[in-house]
């Protein structure tokens, strides 16, 4: 069946340049694994700041926990652009791209802006709880 898994490697690069990252590609059986290292500033803004500091609380009706900062939104957009730039060269024309979770909401539009014509789907595993 094969396939490609692409995402953040989990590694923070202390002296990394925001919007840049090293991609590590390896095989695991018939699946290609592509993990992207992120600069510490990108992890702070994209992951901790916007994804988990704004989107997670909003999706869980915990507006009291949400704290918006413009730099976090900019980091979120910057990292999704970075993911698109690093992912696009790995794609084949017939690949179906499955984008998973709120960390990657803008990824499809970033890929489309680069000319990617692949079929895409999106799934958010975070169920929005009903307000009490």
From TrEMBL:
Gene3D superfamilies membership: Glycogen Phosphorylase B
GO molecular function: alpha,alpha-trehalose-phosphate synthase (UDP-forming) activity
Biological processes per GO annotation: trehalose biosynthetic process
One Pfam match: Glyco_transf_20
Similarity annotation: Belongs to the glycosyltransferase 20 family.
Protein name: Glyco_transf_20
Organism annotation: uncultured Herbaspirillum sp
């Amino acid at each position: 069946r094969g396939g490609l898994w692409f995402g953040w490697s989990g590694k923070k690069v202390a002296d990394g340049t925001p919007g840049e990252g090293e991609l590590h590609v390896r095989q695991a059986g018939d699946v290609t694994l592509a993990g992207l290292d992120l600069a510490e500033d990108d992890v702070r803004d994209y992951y901790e700041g916007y994804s988990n500091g704004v989107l997670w609380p909003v999706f869980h009706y915990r507006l009291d926990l949400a704290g918006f900062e413009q730099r976090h939104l900019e980091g979120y957009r910057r990292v999704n652009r970075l993911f698109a730039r690093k992912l696009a060269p790995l794609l084949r024309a017939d690949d179906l791209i499955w984008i998973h979770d709120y960390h990657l909401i803008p990824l499809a539009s970033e890929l489309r802006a680069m000319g990617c014509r692949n079929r895409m789907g999106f799934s958010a595993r975070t169920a929005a709880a009903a307000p009490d």
